[in-house]
């Protein structure tokens, strides 16, 4: 299993994220993923820079690690033709180190353009058309597309990388797996669900990349780690069926007002010990995931965590 690092835009500013990217590469992580949000989940997180500008800078601050969006919604806030252009540009800047991770999105980030928030079945229709448009643009030449939701008129990517940008799609159940496995290169999921992995490989026609994500909160003081995880990551326990629908930080604060610190600690490895992290990572490996990106909770606690990762965590995981 390849171990990655998450550049979480909801908890750090753009300059800090670029610095963290370089440090994570030096620490020995295999790849780095970046969230693409217009808003943090909770006010306490406090950040939301534009991911694609940061990614451009990160391509120049790193040399080796693969880069990836985890994930971009190419349907409401962005048009898929524009996402294809951005992805191709980042692939060129990075020297073929970029994977485009996309998903159906959350109300939190997409409602800001005033187009409303469609029901989940429509969101999947939108995402399917978006994948088709992006793939056609990656093929080169002029693209015309007339779908139920999107139209593209004589669009062409004038700067295409020699190595095609891989597309990874976030899935949450059998319906999304059956829809997107034939269209994508890799699977994204946040739960170590073996059935998703197995079904994905069936509809892919063979084994392929499956990329997960695991939040942790490292600190030399376990109580401080639990307090920070509760403050900044208590939204995580709601599950994506809830998280995709709430429109703002006030909604997430209200929905999680009765979540206790011990509830968060039961789901997220907290504290200085390697063991709980290794156990949590093993669940993804056993579920068939090939890649796992770790999230260190707390934007001000990245450099210390990366020292810990280099000296103890990554060797233990490997």
Automatic annotation (TrEMBL):
<dbReference type="InterPro" id="IPR036661">
    <property type="entry name" value="Luciferase-like_sf"/>
</dbReference>
<feature type="domain" description="Luciferase-like">
    <location>
        <begin position="1"/>
        <end position="290"/>
    </location>
</feature>
<keyword id="KW-0560">Oxidoreductase</keyword>
<dbReference type="InterPro" id="IPR011251">
    <property type="entry name" value="Luciferase-like_dom"/>
</dbReference>
<dbReference type="InterPro" id="IPR050564">
    <property type="entry name" value="F420-G6PD/mer"/>
</dbReference>
<dbReference type="InterPro" id="IPR019945">
    <property type="entry name" value="F420_G6P_DH-rel"/>
</dbReference>
<dbReference type="GO" id="GO:0016705">
    <property type="term" value="F:oxidoreductase activity, acting on paired donors, with incorporation or reduction of molecular oxygen"/>
</dbReference>
<protein>
    <submittedName>
        <fullName>G6PDH family F420-dependent oxidoreductase</fullName>
    </submittedName>
</protein>
<dbReference type="Pfam" id="PF00296">
    <property type="entry name" value="Bac_luciferase"/>
</dbReference>
